[in-house]
Amino acid sequence: MPDLSPLAPGAAVPQDDDAARLNDLGYKQELNRSLGVLGNIAMGFAVVSPVVALYAVSMVGTMIAGPAWVWALPIVLLGQCLVVNVYSELASQWPLAGGPYQWGRRLLGPSFGWMSGWVWQFAVMFGNTTVAYLAAPWVFALVGVVPTPGAMVAVAAGILLACMLVNAYGIRILSWFVSLGIAAEAIASVLVGFTLLLFFREHGFSMFTETLGAEELSGGSTTMAFLAVLAVAGWGFIGFDACVSTAEETKDAGRQVPRAMWWALLSVGLVVILNAMAVALAHPDPRAVVAGEDLDPVTTAVVTAFGSWSDKPFVAVVLVGFLACAMASQGGAARGVYSLARDGVFPFSRLVRRVNRRQAPIGGLIASTLVSCTGLLLGLNATAIGSLIAFGTAATFLPFFLVSLAALIARTRGTWVPSGHIRLGRKGTVLNVLAVLWTAFEVVNVCWPRAILAPPEAPWYQVWAGLLGTGAVITVGLLYLAVKKPQETLRAARAREEDAVGTSAGETRAGELTPETP
User: Fold this and answer.
1) 3-state secondary structure of 250
2) CA-to-CA distance for 380 and 403, rounded, in angstroms?
3) Residues in Cβ contact with 199 at an 8 Å cutoff, skipping those fewer than 6 apart
4) What pTM value is reported for the model?
5) Which residues contact 308 (CB under 8 A, 6 or more apart)?
């Protein structure tokens, strides 16, 4: 049965404030709570990852809208700040692993919460597939080998397995590796970005008003091109919720996790904007990128500026950034699965909820790695892996929307009044409305079928991959709800928890009214 009830009467009361808070929320402290705020920021920073974000969106953004694409970045950053406002209030009150699931079931009930967690979980697990697959070419670039599709899949699977092993050694080791990746990102992003911007500009800032004819791919419409860029740029500002995934391993989580999310999102956002502008201004031939002749404008700009000697060192630094992103993202996925499994509402929960002697969620690590590796099989067909990447972007924004919507509905009903350290009051309601509007727009925008975001002559299902993939995950989730009824498990456990709390409160009141016998 799921373990949702407080500790039994007579059990030792946790001395640690965080463990006591977790106990009040119905769970025992099973994971190793050793992260400070910097460690939590590092997890979010690594998953958002300026290196991964820039490589994911720079080439596509330039092809769609020319140099003017960079204006989409601050817009998306502001939109995601609206989401962080909502997440901050929720994480402050309920600092639990598996945020969308845990928050959704407390705000709108077990069915909604379970579905939110289900969608979020598969978005993260297939997101891990994407990161590992995109990291693999850098391994081959480092050794100077041209990969086959099979070799790409094999190396990507090796990356996922290596990340699982690092995660299995516990949060301290994971945090150390992630910190190494952040150091690499600082070199690759901040130092290189400022150097390009200050000393190697090939163009004036007026170039950011030009599209160089890229809108022709969108039927000549600049508006449609910019909407497509907003969909693409969304990939660059996701992952800050990894700070929530490690909430049960962070000291003073109710205060520090919201701070960490803000630091992770804003620091990465500013670095991505800096580097996107620097690469565009330092690139020797932006028209070649628009024409699809230069598929790696970031490396082109760096090597042109610094010389051919910088090629391998830059590749090594970028690879380290990708690996740190994969490790942190996989850690977040494992903790999300663990959060569902300990409540008995995930397939094979008894096995998946296991924690090893290093207090790492080993069951969740194995389960999430298996799912991510299964997704890699699509990499044997480049068209198929492209569909997975499109789905991953769409499915990531859907939980943002569901959580924001649940928070807004609960606010307006009066069933949720934020009671954590972050309480925004009426301003929070306004920001919540804006977060719902932003995430709803971005879900539709990302899922919208666009041939320009698919390879030339791609089959129809890749053009529709975002909508089809999201629909498939939701359909499977609804079938699981109908057949396995995890919501009933959660309702029964909640009733037992409330009975236990009520009994405890009644005994306390009786003790207060009855004089002690000498």
Assistant:
1) strand
2) 35
3) 305
4) 0.90
5) none
Cβ 475 vs Cβ 119: under 8 Å: no
Rounded distance between C-alpha atoms, residue 369 and residue 506, angstroms:
46
Distance (Å, whole) CA 352 – CA 361: 8
Which residues, at least 6 apart from 207, have a Cβ–Cβ distance to it below 8 Å?
Answer: 67, 280, 281, 286
Among 171, 134, 159, smallest CA distance to 42 is for 171
Q: What is the residue whose two structure tokens read 């719902």?
A: 436
| Residue corresponding to tokens 């009933």 | 488
Q: What's the token pair of residue 202?
A: 């090939």
Is the Cβ–Cβ distance between 331 and 151 less than 8 Å?
no
Kindly list the distances between the CA atom of residue 297 and the CA atoms of 92, 187, 207, 301, 302, in Å, as whole numbers in the listed order.
Answer: 41, 18, 16, 6, 9
Give the separation between CA 500 and CA 492, rounded to whole angstroms. Answer: 12
Q: How deeply is 296 buried, as exposed, middle or buried, from its count of CB atoms within 10 A (0-12, 13-18, 19+)?
A: middle
DSSP string, 410-461: HHHHTS----SS---HHHHHHHHHHHHHHHHHHHHHHHS--GGGS-TT--HH
φ/ψ bin of 109: left (φ > 0), alpha (ψ from -120 to 50), beta (otherwise): left
Is there a contact between 315 and 136 (Cβ–Cβ < 8 Å)? no
pLDDT tens sequence for the chain (518 residues): 444 433 444 444 445 789 999 998 889 999 999 999 999 999 998 987 888 888 778 888 999 999 999 999 999 999 999 999 999 999 999 999 999 999 999 999 999 999 999 999 998 998 899 899 989 999 999 988 988 889 999 999 999 999 999 999 999 899 998 988 888 777 778 888 999 999 999 999 999 999 999 999 899 999 999 999 998 888 888 889 999 999 999 999 999 999 999 999 999 899 999 999 999 999 999 999 999 899 889 999 999 999 988 889 888 888 988 999 999 999 999 999 999 999 999 999 999 999 999 999 999 999 999 999 998 887 777 666 666 666 766 778 899 999 999 999 999 999 999 999 999 999 999 999 999 999 999 999 988 988 888 777 778 887 888 888 889 899 999 999 999 999 998 887 677 556 645 554 454 444 433 333 32
Residue 362: CB atoms within 10 Å = 21
Secondary structure class of 62 (helix, strand, coil): helix
- Tokens 């962080």, residue located: 84
Q: Alpha helices, DSSP H only, in 169-252?
A: 171-185, 192-199, 222-233, 242-245
